[in-house]
């Protein structure tokens, strides 16, 4: 297998005595957009947290050539401080990531996600979709080499979801690795290179996106 | 090993009890009450040893991440709380007739009481769901922090008292050789009992973990 | 590390002072404690300086629990802890940032507690106020170093403030004893001969738990729930 940014070797994860993932083998390559699909409880979110290094594996090994701070993670929660303005939120993450204090990149990412008009409003008043867009802005701000997005389209309107797909494709084309959990397989299949299907804690399919047949997913995803 | 320890503890205990009641002479000023001391001091000692074990096992757990250390720390903490609690209770029973009060400010007493509080909280945490998946790590950190606190508590408790004149002399001064021998026998007996309990409890916790693991891997084979 | 710690501290202080909810609750609880404790003396009598100092530190200790629950609660509300962990800054910078923010907040609360203690407990300060501030600041650092370390206990699925109280209070005993004695010295102007020993205790406490927190915090503050 090709040398990847991140490699999972026979990784399992348990919560107490309950297995969530078993014997997962996975390599993330730069420039590749990977779509992770599967029914609820298949371990998709856990897989993303393992990839992010936020969870240690119960068994197996994860090797990475990424330096700290090169991962952009978007989870179920938005990682936003509701009492700070959108701009102050981003400025905080800029400082935490050791980036020079500069307004220009913040303006740029806010424009990318279409929040420029709301930059000085408290993030707490944002709708779910706007919070999600602010989260995306945070991920883009730090210019990560690996993007881990857990249902990034949740709460987004169709236009924003299309914007998201464009951004993901652009990030992958610029050389970043993307792993991306989604239930909207029909629409997202077109922009990704590779699909991993998780079912019953294991990898049920891992291969090129064009060979993936979503019809077997009836009832599990939007197909 | 556990059985051997337990048997030895039983044998030595009989000897030690004999030493307390028939071999060691009755202390002149304190009378029969002084005999509590033979039980009190070994328990205080071995509770301190328990806390040292918690400390060392916690460091080893953080360094090596082996579950056996977490279980050892847990078992030792349980024993430590039990023994320091009993040491405090027996100490009070001794203090009332001798000093005329149940409780007084003494560095050793205060340190033991504070340690009892800390490790009782540690056990409370063990029984709760704090930390979720990280519970063992959380407990190991607490086990280390708690032990670092012990010398500080002792020093500050001593300063606190020293501002007022010490009312009470040190305990157990002027013991006769027979008394020392009885004390040694009791120390050994309590130590063997401690070791047997520690090993048994660690083994029990390991058995519990093994059942959990069986559930986990048994399911994987199906 | 220092830059990230400052960013955390600045952000936390901004959040604590803008919403002010956390701080107001802490101040109110402390004032209530001091008032209730003032019932332990007959009307018209003075509380002994030792009692006043003890009540002051009791109010501080309870305030500290609220402060650190608030500070770590900020990161849990929308899962920001994960972002902090993924940043390139060492995890210890979160501990340091929170400890500094907590230290400032606690000191602000004490600025209210001190006159309240003087008023409700009938004290007159005989010693130097400057020395008093120095003592309080030094003892506070020990409290905050340990509070910031153990405040991380209350992250994740199960955060129980009451549990933090039970664990933290006995561990704080050395710092509290030293704080009480030193403050008594400041209030009464007597007992100066023991100041050296107590200062040593405070410095030792601060040093031990700062070092312990720097080593142990990364174990506590992780992405696991």
Automatic annotation (TrEMBL), chain A:
What's a GO biological-process term for it? cytochrome complex assembly
What GO molecular function annotation could you give as one example from this UniProt entry?
ATP hydrolysis activity
Point out the coiled-coil segments of this chain: none
Origin superkingdom: Bacteria
Q: Which UniProt keywords apply?
A: ATP-binding, Cytochrome c-type biogenesis, Nucleotide-binding, Transport
Task: Note the InterPro entries from the entry.
Answer: AAA+_ATPase (IPR003593), ABC_transporter-like_ATP-bd (IPR003439), ABC_Transporter_VariousFunc (IPR051782), ABC_transptr_haem_export_CcmA (IPR005895), P-loop_NTPase (IPR027417)
Q: What SUPFAM superfamilies does this protein's entry cite? A: P-loop containing nucleoside triphosphate hydrolases
Per the database record, which ranges form the ABC transporter domain? 6-222
The keyword Lipid biosynthesis is annotated on this UniProt entry: no
Q: Does the keyword tRNA-binding apply?
A: no
Q: What is this protein called?
A: Heme ABC exporter ATP-binding protein CcmA
Q: Which gene encodes it?
A: ccmA
UniProtKB/TrEMBL annotation, chain B:
Q: Which UniProt keywords apply?
A: Cytochrome c-type biogenesis, Membrane, Transmembrane, Transmembrane helix
Its GO biological process annotations read: cytochrome complex assembly
Membrane topology term: Multi-pass membrane protein
Q: Name one GO cellular component term.
A: plasma membrane
Gene Ontology molecular function: heme binding; heme transmembrane transporter activity
Q: Where in the cell is it found?
A: Membrane
Pfam families given for it?
Answer: Cytochrom_C_asm
Q: What does this protein do?
A: Required for the export of heme to the periplasm for the biogenesis of c-type cytochromes.
According to UniProt, the name of this protein is Heme exporter protein C
Specify the species: Solidesulfovibrio aerotolerans
Tell me the organism's taxonomic lineage: Bacteria, Pseudomonadati, Thermodesulfobacteriota, Desulfovibrionia, Desulfovibrionales
Automatic annotation (TrEMBL), chain C:
Domain of life assignment: Bacteria
* Ranges that cross the membrane: 20-39, 51-74, 94-121, 133-156, 162-183, 195-221
Name the chain's protein: Heme ABC transporter permease CcmB
Which Pfam families does the protein's record reference? CcmB (PF03379)
Query: GO biological process annotations for this chain's record?
Result: cytochrome complex assembly
What start and end residues bound the annotated signal peptide? none
GO MF term set: heme transmembrane transporter activity
Which family does the entry's similarity section mention?
A: Belongs to the CcmB/CycW/HelB family.
Subcellular localization, as worded in the UniProt entry? Membrane
Concerning InterPro entries, the annotation shows:
Cyt_c_biogenesis_CcmB
Q: Which UniProt keywords apply?
A: Membrane, Transmembrane, Transmembrane helix
Chief subcellular location equals membrane
User: How is this protein positioned relative to the membrane?
Assistant: Multi-pass membrane protein
UniProt keyword annotation of Nucleus present: no
Q: Name one GO cellular component term.
A: membrane
